C-alpha cells in the first residue's frame, strides 16, 4: 500500500503537494467500474484536482466524511464535484455506510494529518481526529478489524486483510503512535490509544497466521473474527493462503521496532512459504477479444496463461491450504485449478497472478534479516 507523502516542489513560489495515490483504488472504482447503487455517479470526463490543490482536496474529504467519522467507499476524493453532488453528500452524512473496503478511510486520515501539518486548518485536524476515533471504535478487542463498520454482517465482519484493510489501518496507527512527523501534533491520549491498537493488531496477525500440520505459512484474505481461521469472502474469493496479503503483512512486520521472537518467527515462516510457492515458467498475457459487457465492468480483452521458461517468477492470488496449489473461481464459487476454467467475467475482472512478493524477497527481507541475524533461528 502506498500512503500519501508530502511532496515539496522545487522553486521559491512552487506550492507543496500531498501525494494522493492512496485514493487510487476508490477513484478507479468510481470512474471505471459499474455500480448503479453508488451514491454519486461520475459524469463523463469529470475533472479532478491536481496534487498541489491540497485545500480543495481536503475540503472534498470533509464533504465525503460521514458523521460517524468514517467515509463511504468507491468515490474519487479528487473529483471536482458539481453543486448537486455536494448537496447529495451533505444530505446523506448521517448514514452508516462506512467501510474500509477498497483502500478506504485510512488514506483519508493520513492525508488530513499531512494537510493539517502543512497548512494548520483546524477543521482538518478535527476531521482527522474523528477518523482516528472511528478506527479505534471499529477495532475488535483481539486487535483485528472488520471490512465494514458499524454493524458488520456476513463476511464483512471477518478480520480483513484484502484490499489493504488491516495493514493500511495499522500503518496509519503506527505513524500516529511513534509518531511520524505529520502526526506530531496529535494529543497524547490518542497517541497512547494508537500504541495499544498497534500492539493488539500485531497479536491478531500472529494468531491469524495459517498452520498446516506443524508448519507456519502465510495469511488469507479474510479470517474468522472468532476462530482466526481463513475464510471465504465474495463467491470467487475462496478460503486460501493469499500471496499478496501475506506480502503486505510481512512488510508491516519487518517494520516493527525491537521485534519479539514470535514476530521474527512469523516473518521467517511466511518468507519461507512465499519462496516455496513461487511459480516458474509462465507469464500472464492480455489478448484482444470481442467486446463484452458484464455487471461490473466492460472489456475488450481476455487473459491467458502462457508457458515461458524465461519469464520472471509469479505468484498466484490464492493458494489452497494444505496443497499449496493455485486455486481460482468464477462467481459460482466452484473451486478450479487453472485460470482457463474461470469464466471471462472473472478472468478479466480480478488480478489472479502478480509479482507482489518480489521486492520484499529481493531487497527488504534480506536487509531485515541481516539486521536481525542474531535473532533468526
What does this structure look like?
The protein is an alpha+beta fold. The chain folds into 2 domains: 203 residues, Glycosyltransferase (Alpha/alpha barrel); 90 residues, no CATH class. Helix content is 37%, strand content 12%. A hairpin with a 2-residue loop joins strand 4 and strand 5. The longest helix is centred in the middle third of the chain and has 21 residues.
Q: Rg from C-alpha positions?
A: 21 Å
Mean of residue pLDDT?
95
CATH class of the largest domain: Mainly Alpha
Just name the CATH architecture of the largest domain: Alpha/alpha barrel
Spans where pLDDT lies below 50 across 5 or more residues = 8-12
User: How many angstroms separate the termini?
Assistant: 29 Å
| Discrete helix count | 11
In terms of DSSP E residues, the strand content is 5-15%
Give me some keywords for this one.
377 residues; alpha+beta; Glycosyltransferase; 2 domains; two-stranded antiparallel sheet; globular
SSE layout:
Layout: E1 6-7, E2 17-18, H1 24-32, H2 54-64, H3 83-91, H4 106-119, H5 122-138, E3 159-160, H6 165-177, H7 188-208, E4 211-212, E5 215-216, E6 222-223, E7 230-231, E8 241-242, H8 243-253, H9 261-276, E9 282-293, E10 298-307, E11 315-316, E12 318-319, H10 344-347, E13 353-354, H11 358-371
Antiparallel strand pairs: 1-2, 3-6, 4-5, 6-7, 8-12, 9-10, 11-13
Helix pairs in contact: 2-4, 4-5, 4-6, 5-7, 6-7, 8-9
Amino acid at each position: 500500500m502506498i500512503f500519501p507523502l508530502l511532496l515539496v516542489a522545487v522553486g521559491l513560489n512552487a506550492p507543496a503537494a500531498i501525494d494522493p495515490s492512496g485514493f487510487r483504488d476508490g477513484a478507479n472504482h468510481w470512474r471505471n467500474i459499474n455500480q448503479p447503487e453508488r451514491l454519486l455517479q461520475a459524469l463523463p470526463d469529470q475533472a479532478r484536482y491536481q496534487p498541489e490543490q491540497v485545500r480543495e482536496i481536503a475540503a472534498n474529504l470533509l464533504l465525503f466524511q460521514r458523521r460517524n467519522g468514517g467515509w463511504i467507499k468507491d468515490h474519487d476524493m479528487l473529483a471536482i464535484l458539481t453543486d448537486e453532488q455536494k448537496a447529495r453528500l451533505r444530505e446523506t452524512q448521517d448514514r452508516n455506510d462506512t467501510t474500509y473496503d477498497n483502500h478506504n478511510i485510512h488514506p483519508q486520515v493520513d492525508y488530513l494529518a499531512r494537510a493539517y501539518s502543512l497548512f494548520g486548518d483546524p477543521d482538518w485536524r478535527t476531521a482527522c481526529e474523528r477518523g482516528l476515533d472511528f478506527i479505534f471504535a471499529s477495532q475488535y478487542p483481539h486487535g483485528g478489524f472488520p471490512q465494514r463498520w458499524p454493524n458488520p454482517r456476513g463476511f464483512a465482519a471477518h478480520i480483513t486483510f484484502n484490499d489493504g484493510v488491516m495493514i493500511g489501518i495499522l500503518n496509519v496507527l503506527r505513524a500516529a503512535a511513534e509518531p511520524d512527523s505529520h502526526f506530531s501534533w496529535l494529543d497524547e491520549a490518542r497517541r497512547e490509544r494508537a500504541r495499544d491498537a498497534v500492539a493488539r493488531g500485531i497479536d491478531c496477525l500472529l494468531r491469524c497466521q495459517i498452520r498446516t500440520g506443524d508448519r507456519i505459512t502465510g495469511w488469507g484474505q479474510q479470517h474468522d473474527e472468532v476462530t482466526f481461521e481463513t475464510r471465504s469472502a465474495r463467491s470467487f474469493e475462496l478460503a486460501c493462503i493469499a500471496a499478496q496479503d501475506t506480502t503486505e503483512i510481512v512488510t508491516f512486520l519487518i517494520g516493527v521496532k525491537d521485534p519479539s521472537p514470535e514476530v521474527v518467527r512469523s516473518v521467517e515462516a511466511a518468507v519461507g512459504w512465499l519462496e516455496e510457492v513461487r511459480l516458474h515458467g509462465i507469464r500472464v498475457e492480455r489478448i484482444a477479444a470481442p467486446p463484452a459487457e458484464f455487471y461490473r465492468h466492460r472489456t475488450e480483452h481476455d487473459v491467458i496463461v502462457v508457458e515461458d521458461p524465461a519469464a520472471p517468477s509469479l505468484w498466484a492470488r490464492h493458494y489452497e491450504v494444505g496443497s499449496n496449489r493455485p486455486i481460482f473461481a468464477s462467481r459460482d464459487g466452484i473451486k478450479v485449478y487453472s485460470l482457463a476454467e474461470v469464466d471471462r467475467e472473472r478472468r478479466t475482472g480480478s488480478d489472479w497472478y502478480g509479482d507482489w512478493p518480489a521486492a520484499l524477497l529481493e531487497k527488504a527481507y534480506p536487509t531485515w534479516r541481516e539486521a536481525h541475524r542474531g535473532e533468526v533461528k
